[in-house]
Amino acid sequence: MGVKARPAAVEAIRQRVNQVSGHPAMGQVFKCLGAMAAGAVLAGAAVGGVLLPLPLALAAALGLGLESFAAYAGGCLGYAVLWGLDAGLEPMAAGLLAEACLCIFGDQLSRDNRWFAPGAATLFTILVGFLFLLEQRFAPAAVWRLALRAAAAGGGAVLFRRALEGAALPRLCLLAALVSGLSALAPGGFALGLPLGCLLSAGALGTPQSLPVAALCGMALELQGQGGAAVVLPLAAMVASTGQGFLARTGLWLLSVLAGVLLTGAGPMLLTAAILSAALVRLFPWERLFGLLETPARVESRQMELAAGLFSRLGQCLALTRPPQADPDTATVFDHAAERVCRLCSRFDECWKERLGETCTVLDRAAPAMMTRGKALREDLAPSFLSRCLHVEGFLTAINHELDDLACRRQARARLRESRTALTRQYEILAAALSRPSPREEETGRFVPELCCRGQSRDGDALSGDQTMSFRCGRRYYVLLCDGMGAGRAARAEAGAAAAVLRLLLLSGAKPREAMEFLNDLYLLRDDGAFSTVDLAEIDLMTGEAALYKWGAAPSYLKKKGTVEKIGTASPPPGIGAGEEHRPEEAKLSLARGEMLVLVSDGAGGEAAERFLRQYAGTSPKELASGIVSCSQAGDDRTAAVLALRRRIAL
């Protein structure tokens, strides 16, 4: 029974382990353990006997959170084990002050502030080191050591942060720092960083990172007293790069290390580590470790960069194909008219050969009035020309026909020029949006949006032509109110399409003004007369500051306790034209002190709604939105969206 029950017990334990490891909290636990291990290893990094505060740099790069505390705790453990409490007291004290500073000010600073944590690490390293300088009476060697530690703290924080963000070279530098830190562990005089550095150098063979890895690992080992590594490993990587296939490269690398040891006198430890690395190099998935430049995120980023470059190039190509400023069709009007009427006239040679100069002068003087009016009249021609022309009415009819054709061609050219301008701007907006970095979704913000939308269709229709939408992108919160032209299903589809396009553009990185100009250009290219008005509010959840963009929409309101501020004026909707005169309105405002922003469609505006808005004394967006809709007239779709910000309660 016991033998049969054992597999079931093992399977139950395995399932339990899988359940525990798959729990969302375990991911954070593993990250903290990894940060602690990295901090402990980095504590061993030193240059000429000077301890480098790399655990502090890693904690600063991680920012405020459990991982940062874990990295600092691991560094303290590493200093205590590798160097003793007395030697590690200075970086441990600086790290403690930096962590305390992050705890106090970290939640009050934006994550976009990339210099606070490195600056704090550098500042507290200098302050703590200054106390030790007083004890050593500012000896030059002590000052030099303090400068080195301060540079390592601040520079390491910046470098490690870039490594955590996915940059390839900083990641390789982080690996080299781990090699340097592990070299402080030397059981029996054999530094453990030596085989790790050789193993990384051997594993990188055949990849674009081969020489950088060898150079960084060799430099890290050289600074830890492993003489010759900074020369032997890079030279071996260069020689091995000429080999074809794994065995050839590994063999050349091992022979090159042997030759380098003999020539430089690096010692047997490096050769032993190289032989051990050559034997173990096939046991690890190096293609994943050194495929840093080809990770899915980086491949996607490169594709986005290529797409942005393509859109930018297309926009430049369209911008170069400008039509000529001069209109060559003016002179051809009379030529075509003469071909139609005068060619068969008995006086053709007299008018267009013998007296050509006089004829051209008469027509040139008549041309400005004809072009301005768009029509030729008998009074435009000189009496001398009328007296000898046998087909005046036919000639004028032919000229008017050509003028109509010219007007159509000019209108088509203007439309083509407008479409080309719109398409060029669309390409530029897409290129700019794809080039911008994605916002950090984990930012919580100091404010929580409270939005209430109330709507009612016209005359009780089942569908409303007004569409509202709200979404978040990083620290930004967006509210959209689009009013489609007309009512019913078609208006609802138009407003929904406009809101969807704007949402996708904003999530892709476009700025609000760019997104609305993109929608305007889209309407111009469609040329079907359908459009939607737009209210777009962008709110910064960190500061409470907001910007309201309006295009063709009804006026909005900002309610501040007992006062009401009206925002926006009547303007044409998007899709009417292009150029500087066709731009959305923009208003800057703040919702940080309990203000309520009220967006209404055309049907929900009016004197009754504004009167209710001014009389309302509450603070509930729900009550305010419901009251505005209920007191509005029923002649159109009615929608009101009321937004307020509430301060987030810190837990």
From TrEMBL:
It comes from the Bacteria. One of its GO terms (molecular function) is phosphatase activity. The keyword Glycoprotein does not apply. The chain crosses the membrane at residues 32-52, 58-82, 115-134, 172-193, 228-247, 253-281. Residues 448-647 form the PPM-type phosphatase domain. Pfam families: SpoIIE (PF07228), SpoIIE_N (PF19732). SUPFAM superfamilies: PP2C-like. SMART domains: PP2C_SIG (SM00331). Keywords: Hydrolase, Membrane, Transmembrane, Transmembrane helix. PANTHER family: STAGE II SPORULATION PROTEIN E (PTHR43156:SF2), STAGE II SPORULATION PROTEIN E-RELATED (PTHR43156). This is SpoIIE family protein phosphatase. It comes from Candidatus Avoscillospira stercoripullorum.
